[in-house]
Write a structure and sequence with these properties.
Helix content: 10-25%
Strand order of the largest sheet: 5-4-1-6-7
Number of helices: 11
Shape: elongated
Number of strands: 26
Strand content: 25-35%
Structural class: alpha/beta
Length: about 575
């Protein structure tokens, strides 16, 4: 027999020595002092000696037994003593086995699931021939593996032995609700059969929610008993990776050359008895993908950083950078590759939460389209450059930039031209034919990004109606641009958005020389639009919104749905 609190039982066994010691102290002989009537007392004692000795031994045994039973009761031999319930036969026993994330927590060389398996094995060995057993696993969602109970106890024992920990929480309420519904159906057919429900779980945080009481689904059922242990205290310390956030969702790199370093931020949480201690943890981050034949390919060598825990600290974060290198050979034939960013920490008592994975896209180069009329003149002075020319210079400032620019005529926008693009710039939206706007919407729904800027030389902007209708935008855009003799300035503090996160630290310096002489006001009339850049008076200079998608197609490079902007 084992106990939930074996230390208490051992202390109780040691306490049995107390009544024995008292018995021995009371047997110490005193020096007799003769007196007149002593002869008659000695004569009476000799006649009652045997009976008194038996009484003393019985009293000593009773005292010792009381102490021993009290220790056993406090030590709670609930689960192991369940075998005593099966001295007869004709019972249904349902095992609720916790194989959730916390079931892999080790204490010494054994896990919580190992202890649950041992307890179930002892109980099954004590059951009689007329007994039946059922099995419900608690990993969410709770799975009724064997319901109703089966007389094949050997098969149930093997099913329990084959259980492995999962990475999900335990669904104890769901298991009880499922079992309660089944037991009501069984009770209607056989109300006389006794049922025992045995919960095999350490009830640690992660396997039970202390703020959510268990449902009383078994309370109204007769001849049903629920046996459950007291929650265990998690030993040692457990460290969990709670977040892995790369600064870029897509990494741009040419074949065989390093990309820009990708900053990665990792957040971790510490729990358990070791929170009050000082400690050091090592975090390792790598990037891998799979080739066509399933072989694992490393795209970034392992980067490491450390976290020093101070006493009482339960949460921390760390930052590092990874260098991504795309293989120079043809191992990865696709231009766009879905890779996996993997963060790992030192091994502790719970291995299942020591690894965190996040998908990230790896692209040779972004394919950017610029929709504008082609110009066949030679060299042009800077003051004669069109908006499309400035866009090309900004997108590809050097030959090594991982961006490929595709020039498109406004009248040649079709599905084939858009199929390989990741983003599209429209510096002359007034030149886009009406039948091309639905293709732009399909491009956005498929994950593309459309950036629209008003034409600089247009006086009356009639294209805005098609733009707003195509992308279902509830915006108000003026027909005519406002012209300012005194140029407008941008606000020194700009909104924090993901689109400009790459240059957030330099944004103030980049915007300080920018002035606005012509401005086409646009105002969103519903929630959902995001201000990217704002003027000093608070009006948005650049807006973005993701329209409701009508085509459920994945993005080309794993990015979020495209966003038209103005």
């Amino acid at each position: 027999m084992t106990f939930l609190h074996p230390a208490i039982f051992i202390a109780g066994v040691a306490a049995v020595s107390i009544p024995i010691l008292i018995h021995l102290l009371l047997r110490q002989r005193r020096k007799p002092i003769p007196w007149a009537a002593m002869r008659f007392l000695l004569e009476a004692f000799r006649r009652q000696r045997r009976r008194l000795r038996v009484q003393q031994w019985l009293l000593l045994a009773t005292r010792c037994l009381i102490v021993l039973l009290l220790a056993a009761a406090i030590a709670r031999p609930l689960i192991d003593a369940a075998g005593a319930l099966f001295a007869g036969s004709g019972r249904d026993v349902y095992f609720l086995v916790d194989e959730s994330l916390t079931a892999s927590l080790r204490t010494g060389n054994t896990t919580a699931l190992d202890r649950a398996k041992e307890q179930a094995d002892r109980i099954l060995g004590a059951m009689g021939e007329g007994d039946r057993a059922g099995l419900i696993t608690l990993s969410a969602p709770a799975n009724p593996v064997v319901i109703p109970a089966s007389p094949d106890l050997g098969a149930i024992r093997q099913l329990i032995r084959n259980l492995e920990p999962t990475e999900a929480r335990a669904d104890i309420p769901g298991a009880l609700e499922s079992l309660g519904a089944r037991l009501r159906a069984i009770a209607a057919a056989d109300a006389a059969r006794e049922t025992v429900v045995i919960l095999l779980s350490d009830l640690l945080s992660g396997s039970a929610d202390p703020t959510r009481p268990l449902p009383s689904v078994l309370a109204d059922l007769d001849r049903v008993r629920l046996l459950a242990p007291e929650p265990r205290t998690a030993p040692g310390s457990n460290i969990t990776i709670t977040g892995l956030d790369p600064q870029r969702s897509v990494v741009l790199t040419g074949r065989g050359r390093a990309s820009e370093p990708v900053p990665v931020r990792i957040t971790v949480r510490r729990s358990g008895a070791g929170v009050g201690e000082e400690a050091v943890s090592t975090i390792r981050v790598r990037l891998v993908t799979a080739s066509g034949d399933g072989e694992t390919i490393t795209l970034a060598q392992e980067a490491r950083t450390g976290i020093r825990w101070s006493p009482g600290q339960s949460e921390a974060s760390a930052s590092l950078t990874v260098e991504v290198v795309r293989p120079a050979d043809d191992t990865l034939a696709a231009r766009t590759t879905q890779a996996m960013l993997i963060a790992e920490i030192d091994r502790d008592d719970l291995d299942a939460d020591n690894t965190f994975r996040r998908p990230i896209g790896v692209v040779d180069a972004l394919e950017i389209g610029v929709v504008a009329p082609r110009r066949f003149t030679g060299a042009i002075r800077s003051e004669r450059l069109a908006p499309a020319d400035w866009l090309r210079f900004a997108l590809q400032p050097s030959e090594g930039a991982p961006i490929t620019i595709r020039d498109l005529e406004p009248g040649s926008i079709d599905a084939a031209a858009l199929a390989t693009l990741d983003a599209l710039f429209l510096p002359d939206p007034d030149l886009i034919p009406q039948n091309a706007w639905p293709r732009l919407r399909a491009f956005v729904d498929a994950g593309g990004l459309v950036i629209v800027s008003p034409p600089a030389e247009t006086t009356v902007h009639l294209w805005t109606d098609l733009f707003l209708d195509t992308f279902d935008l509830e915006w108000t855009i003026a027909r005519e641009a406002e012209v300012y003799a005194e140029p407008l300035r941008l606000a020194p503090e700009q909104p924090q958005t993901g689109l400009l996160s790459q240059v957030a630290g330099e944004l103030r310096d980049l915007l300080s020389p920018v002035s606005v002489e012509r401005f086409l006001p646009a105002t969103p009339n519903r929630a959902g639009a995001t201000d990217i850049l704002v003027l000093a008076d608070g009006r948005p200079l650049i807006l973005a919104e993701s329209p409701v998608r009508t085509i459920r197609a994945p993005g080309r490079n794993g990015t979020a749905p495209g966003t038209p902007g103005t």
